[in-house]
Hints:
The protein is an alpha/beta fold and 364 residues long. Helix content is 45%, strand content 16%. It folds into two domains: 3-176 and 349-361, Rossmann fold, CATH 3.40.50; 181-336, Glycogen Phosphorylase B (Rossmann fold), CATH 3.40.50. It has helices at residues 11-18, 21-27, 45-50, 67-85, 97-108, 136-146, 156-165, 177-191, 194-198, 214-217, 220-231, 243-251, 255-259, 272-280, 290-299, 313-317, 328-336, 353-361; strands at residues 3-8, 29-34, 58-59, 89-93, 113-116, 123-124, 150-153, 170-173, 206-210, 236-240, 264-267, 284-287, 303-305, 309-310, 321-323. The two termini are 12 Å apart. The relative contact order is 0.13.
Amino acid sequence: MKKLLTVIGTRPQFIKYAAISTRLRRNFREILVDTGQHYSKKMSSDFIKELNIPHPDYTIGVSSENVVSQIAEMIKGLYPVIERHKPDILLCFGDTNSALAAALSGLKYDIPVVHIEAGERNYDKNFKRVPAYTIPEEANRIAIDSFSAHLICSSRRAYKNLTEEKVTGSIFYSGDIMLDIYLKNFKEVLKRENVLNKYGLKSKQYYFVTIHRAINTDNMERMKAFYNVFKNLEKTVILPLHPRTLKKLRGFNLYNKFLTLKNLVLTEPVGYLDSLVLNYHAACVMTDSGGVIREAYFNGVPSVMLDDTSEWLDLYESNWSFIAGADEEAIMKKLEDLRVPDKKPDFFGDGKAGLKTVNYLKKC
């Protein structure tokens, strides 16, 4: 049985891994590493318990917020694991620093890299491709794709992108494994209306917001813009605070100002299922997370992207989402003219991406 080294470290990666973890362990001798990129208990260990995934064999626990130092710590932490276990395949997910560190480690040790969610590319509000050097996540995914042996795509658009780029690795379309785990948990989501009661919310009478990307959290003017938007909304806004977001708000002396908004509910990070519940019952989702806007789409909820670019172009072209960035006027205009599209195309597969992915990996 082949040895597989799987590297995760952020909320979306825990979720994606949950969709395939059981099948992976049936077919491979797996070594699981958590880089610790999401250092909050709510963002990591609680997810392990809630999603019923194996406890990592190794946790690196990066200590630096500096991107270069963070990636260096991850690679240094992966070194003894690779030396000890000598895996046959290395598996990484998405566009994070954890994924880049994993892929670089695989490259340098001559281990075939498998990239799940390969081929996605960033577009601006005019649907134009964005230069990779302007967005860290875009640079990460392009770098990973360039030296991956196997590129597994969540969308047909991603498959097309990689084909046009003529990457050297093998390309495979599986569909989105996030849809798999969503479908698995959907019945539980419907049962959890007590989550709304906990926060004093009524279905479709509030906005669910998440903000975590550096383009927002590290920019005081953008955070002020979001404050101004929330201040002018009639509906309630619930905002679970990512640890970095909370730290930056306090550093900008904005946290107490946010607390003064009577329609704003600030919470600690919420678990996967509670997040899905809050997403499902929202009138609209506002976020800078590509994973959260896909969850909104699964739920049939329109969304607004609080970033200047996004890789999920299908959602914007079909009017399920809208790229607004931190433009107060654009956000308000979209919320005032909020509509649920009539059609919900099959952008992300049939909910069997995990099965297809593992069957593909067995042949690698």
